[in-house]
Amino acid sequence: MHRVIAIALAGASLGGCSSMSWDMFKSAPPTVQVRLESNPPGADATTSLGQGCKTPCSVSVPAPDAPFTVAFALPKYQPASVPVNVVRNPGDFTTPASVTTDPNPVFAELQPAVPPKPVRKPHRPKKPKPAAPAAAPADAAPAAASPFPDPNAGKR
Fold first, then answer.
1. How far apart are CA 103 and CA 27, in angstroms?
2. What's the rounded Cα separation, in Å, for the pair 86 and 145?
3. Contact by Cβ (8 Å): 99, 32
4. CB count, 10 Å around CB of 45?
5. Contact at 8 Å (CB) between 75 and 92?
6. Contact in structure between 86 and 52 (CB atoms under 8 Å)
7. Between β-strands 31-39 and 106-109, what pairing exists: parallel, antiparallel or unpaired?
8. Which phi and psi angles does 5 have, rounded to 5°?
9. What is the pLDDT along the chain (156 residues), one digit of tens a residue?
């Protein structure tokens, strides 16, 4: 009878283990608080990890294994992108492990957008206007307009 009870208890305890998940022993991935700033303020800042806000602000990002970027955009200013490195400190017996970013705060100096130069039409030289003809004698044939004086004018 003792064997039956021992087998029943062992079966019940193993049945409880089957519903247990090893995921409960895993820790959540660490998050990093990143401060985002720009000059001028009010830019839309978006990380390559998906989080974003309007500067100045802070976002909480899951600590990635690789560097990421922050893109800054503001109307009438050129967009800017800043690379961010992830620094992992493993810790020891006296200090816990930590994750930080470099730089923090992430800062972007936005440059004004250069307005496009107006498109100029090509310069076309003006056509010279014909000079008003001088009073010619009635029997003289009309001469073609010329900027040079007529060498025969005045001779008769």
1. 26
2. 83
3. yes
4. 25
5. no
6. no
7. parallel
8. -65, -40
9. 666 565 655 555 555 555 555 555 556 667 889 999 999 999 999 999 999 999 999 999 888 888 999 999 999 999 999 999 988 888 778 888 788 889 989 999 999 987 767 767 666 677 777 766 655 555 555 555 667 777 777 665
